[in-house]
Amino acid sequence: MTRMDSSRRYGLLAAAALTLGVTTAGLVAPATGAPISGPLSFADWANEVWSSARMGQSDTMFELLDTLPQNHELAAVESLRERLDRRNEHLEAAEAERHERLNEAWVELDEHLAEHDLSETLRTAVEIYSLSDDKASVLENDKIAALVAEAEQAANAAEANGEWLEAQEILFRLNLLFEDDQRYEDDLNRTSTRLMMIRLYAPERLHDMRNERRIEDDLDPLPPFNRMGEDWHEKLEGIDDPNVVVRAINHAQLAHVDGADMTDLLTGALKNVKTLVTTTDIAVAFPRLRDQAQVDEFVSELDRLIEGLEARRGNTDGWDLTRTLRKVIQANGSTVDVELAALLHEFGNGAMEELDQFSGMIWPDELRQFQKTTQGRFTGVGIQIQLDDAQRLKVVTPLEGTPAQRAGVLPGDIISAVDDESTIGITLSGAVERITGERGTPVTLTIEREGREDPIKVELIRDEIPIYSVKGWQRNGPRETDWNWFIDEENHIGYVRLTQFADGMTREFDNAIRQMRREGDLQGLVLDLRFNPGGLLTEAVELSNRFVSEGVIVSQHDATGREREVQKARRSSTTIGDIPVVVLINEGSASASEIVAGALQDHGKAVLVGARTFGKGSVQNVYDIGRGLAALRLTIQYYRLPNGRLIHRRPNMQEWGIEPDVTVEMSPTQIGEALRVRQDADVLPIDDRGNVVMDGEAPDPGSLLRDGIDMQLETALLLVQSQSIAKKHGLAMLTPDDHAALQGG
């Protein structure tokens, strides 16, 4: 390492003249590994905090934070000390609450065991597991081991008796207990697949099943079932050509990143068809499934086909695919007579389930939603809706400038009918399906409003509704772009939250940064990527390029590790200068979010705070295999970060995703409360003229920090504040190289 010249060295020392006189015994400088001894200037301290965080030395970082003295003469330092103390209080309170709840949960476990309440016992066991530091010891506990054995038997019995909801609930909780080895994943997928089939082909039966469970649990019954938007024929309209499925499976076998054996694809397809015809609850859609003899004959033919394929394993090809599908169609026609669209739907889905979880068929109804998701555009009337406690369709808020807002739809309105069809008992997906539609087409909503005796009919013309992916700290106006972007106005620290990587997201980000710079000197940034499921690679690369000026951002590799494509930074696209940046990540950060976080981490442009990400680092191509009515989404490559890391979680891998530099865990309760506060703060009621209407104070996200609800955000902000305060008050900011040179002197 090049040694610093003496004038530069002493110049930095002079600039760092404000001495804190902190105790540094036992601390080690992250940049050098040398012990830190003697008094540190604030600049030294701030630099060591940042360096230790960036190098993943969380313990050192937190120890350094605690060395900041009380009652400092500089007000900004004293204010930072108060925030640090408040965080420590929040941490202590959270830990105390966790230990108290953990002890209570063990007591409750014994009570539920004595009452032979398997459902509540399992739920409590999962809570104990999530609250415990030593998760392995929880699973080794005799009570938990006996509970797991009992739950396995109960799940098998429920599945054998056709009690699919109960089986799924048990397996879901078992899967949470054993999430690392995923031993119950196949069983859970099987029962979930059955329920998805019931949801598609016999939604009223699923409604009844759920209603029965609610009544058993002493809950209010559901409203009567509403068929609006629930006709499976409409959802599968256009699936009438077997060649669509043949093309998809052939292409998957040839192009999937990990390869695909035709025998596996076909046996998966046949087993899924077998699941379809043995799910008796869907006989309302396919009456001949009530004839057990016909079902048995068809299942026997499926089993014979599976045996034949297994006998030829390694030698099956496209001819076997065509022959197998033809035989299935023929056998179906002479036995159970399931409609061709449903047969092709389940045959194709079963084959794709043998690949990875991100490959699959995109059927007609799904294709429309897929295009909306990736393009960030959809047509509708511009309202956010939810089902309230009474299962009524309620308007959360109209979006500014949309048909609903212009027509006078208000927050809290109840939509009692769509095009004169009642919404009582409707599902949320069914409501969305009916209210949205082609641009320029009409839809009539019947509105019930508090204080109005008679219903209001509102005729709307659907239009394209812009989707905004970039959000700030606090809403301050009716438009989706009206935000206070500063989470700390005193120290000019910005906050940007990205909800997805949709088309135009980086342009929105640029606008937010420009607005912050117009309003003040941007001194730091918190970039929140938590619960961001990803989106377009182009947007991920563009956003990363705003921070990274040169070098690789991400590359794509095939299963052999061969590089197929690489995206590099362009210096002209870098707009974020040398300011401290903290990126928030968690288990819900996936795909494009992981690319951005990983690229900034590898290039040393940000400190990552939170929890390990989801681990979705694969490349999917979408192929039109059905004349625009259906498509194939297929994994063809894996992403690697600049340092060569593989993001994707593959089977039996111990490492995946992006590990934060500073790990800050949050309990499920904290996460839920943080999401609730954030959601409430993001919505401002507006009237029919587009003006904000406030009966009281504006929703305030500040409780996330004041009340210790969001410990990840609180930690991130403290890190950025430590840097911005040093810079703001003219205290020298030492780089790792500078500090190493000083130590060497």
In words, what does this structure look like?
By secondary structure, the protein is α+β, with helices and mostly antiparallel strands. Helices cover 46% and strands 14% of the residues. The chain contains 26 helices and 22 strands. The strands form 6 sheets. Strands 10, 13, 14, 15, 18, 19 and 22 form a 7-stranded mixed beta sheet that branches. Strands 1, 16, 17, 20 and 21 form a 5-stranded antiparallel beta sheet that branches. A hairpin with a 6-residue loop joins strand 20 and strand 21. Helix 13 (262-277) crosses helix 16 and helix 14 runs antiparallel to helix 15. The longest helix is centred in the first third of the chain and has 40 residues, at 75-114.
Spatial gap, N to C terminus:
12 Å
The low-confidence runs, each spanning 5 or more residues with pLDDT under 50, are 1-26, 732-745
Output the number of helix runs: 26
Shape: globular
Major sheet size, sense and barrel closure: 7 strands, mixed
Helicity range of the residues? 40-55%
Which oligomeric state applies? single chain
Quote the average pLDDT.
Answer: 86
Report the radius of gyration as a whole number of Å.
Answer: 29 Å
The structure class reads: alpha+beta
Strand count: 22
Q: Report strand %.
A: 5-15%
Give a quick summary of the entry.
The protein is of the alpha+beta class and 745 residues long. The chain is built from 26 helices and 22 strands.
Write the SSE topology.
Layout: H1 6-15, H2 42-54, H3 58-65, H4 75-114, H5 118-131, H6 135-140, H7 142-160, H8 164-177, H9 185-201, H10 203-216, H11 232-235, H12 242-255, H13 262-277, H14 292-311, H15 318-334, H16 340-352, E1 360-362, H17 364-375, E2 377-380, E3 383-387, E4 393-398, H18 403-406, E5 414-418, E6 421-422, H19 428-435, E7 442-448, E8 456-461, E9 463-466, E10 470-471, E11 474-475, E12 483-484, E13 486-488, E14 493-498, H20 505-519, E15 524-528, H21 537-547, E16 552-557, E17 563-568, E18 581-585, H22 592-602, E19 607-610, E20 618-624, E21 631-640, E22 662-663, H23 668-682, H24 703-706, H25 711-728, H26 736-744
Parallel strand pairs: 14-15, 15-18, 18-19, 19-22
Antiparallel strand pairs: 1-21, 2-9, 3-4, 5-6, 5-7, 7-8, 10-14, 11-12, 13-14, 16-17, 16-21, 20-21
